Amino acid sequence: MVDVLSQNEIDALLAALSSGEMNAEELKKEETEKKIRIYDFKRAVRFSKDHIRSLTRIHENFARFLTTYFSAQLRTFVQISVVQVEQLPYDEFIRSIPKMTILNIFEAEPLEGRMVLEVNPNVAFAMLDRLLGGSGTSPSKINNLTEIETTVMERIFSRAFDSLQEAWKTVVDINPRLEALETNPQFMQIVSPNETIALISLSTKIGDTTGMINLCIPHVVIEPIMAKLSVHHWFVSQKKQRGERDTSALVQNVHRAQLPIIAELGTSEITVQELLNLSVHDVIALNKPMSTGLHIKVGEKLKFFGNPGQVKGKVAVQITDIVEEGEEENVE
């Protein structure tokens, strides 16, 4: 953003140039010098601001779905929201989480590679306490999980990935599947330490307990679909989906439309006097013999040929031929 000078600042600058306190040539030289920006190769920028915004939108939906899911499962107040979406090296993420935490390692076909849903122990044990009949408080001392506790954790978090699948549906259809549950981050090496990851931090509140849920997505995993995270693709796909829905609705409405079908035996012309003199058992000669079949019209357009008959005691018409485009003019 360009700074705008006030009138007093402009007057002071002109006075300094006039008195010789400032040199105009030096100012020009400073402007022409190349500006150097420091780049840290250990923190490679793999996600653009456009990608970060798209990931934020996706996981805001994920947070809403998780809130609904955990509220129903725990039967208590749950509030989950996106706090931050950032990119950083995988090694920095591992060093930032507690030594004892809940690490849900999962895959999401058709994406190749593994991702991690890290749940703060305070949040995880509050969920566990609530599921096992408690009030939903977290213990002051965090111990290793028992086999029963591990099974309960795996069950609730494996179902939570349905919310992730729903949130990503606007970009790509994925099938998240829990692969393992770990408690020690040192035993979890899903990518190289310098690999850039997208870290989505979710603030979580369960009753009176608060904590964080972190979703770690390595760049190498979602690299094949990075183009779909652009704003342009986002709006084009939404427009395409709206167009498909409009087309589908139009097709359904056309299918429900009613059209009159007329089976025409033939035509004849008589005078008004002959019409007034018609009586029972009189015969009107048609313009064609019965052997030529019936003309079946949809609306006013000739579409089929057929023969008269009966089906279950009701008058019916059997279609014998279809009128091709252009043939109806020759027939009539």
UniProtKB/TrEMBL annotation:
User: Superkingdom of this entry's organism?
Assistant: Bacteria
Q: Which SUPFAM superfamilies match?
A: CheC-like, Surface presentation of antigens (SPOA)
Key words of the record: Bacterial flagellum, Cell membrane, Cell projection, Chemotaxis, Cilium, Flagellar rotation, Flagellum, Membrane
The topology of this chain with respect to the membrane is: Peripheral membrane protein
UniProt entry tagged with the keyword Cell membrane: yes
Q: Where in the cell is it found?
A: Bacterial flagellum basal body; Cell membrane
Can you say what this protein is called?
Flagellar motor switch protein FliM
Q: Source gene?
A: fliM
Family the entry assigns: Belongs to the FliM family.
Q: Where is the Flagellar motor switch protein FliN-like C-terminal domain?
A: 253-323
The organism is Marinicrinis sediminis
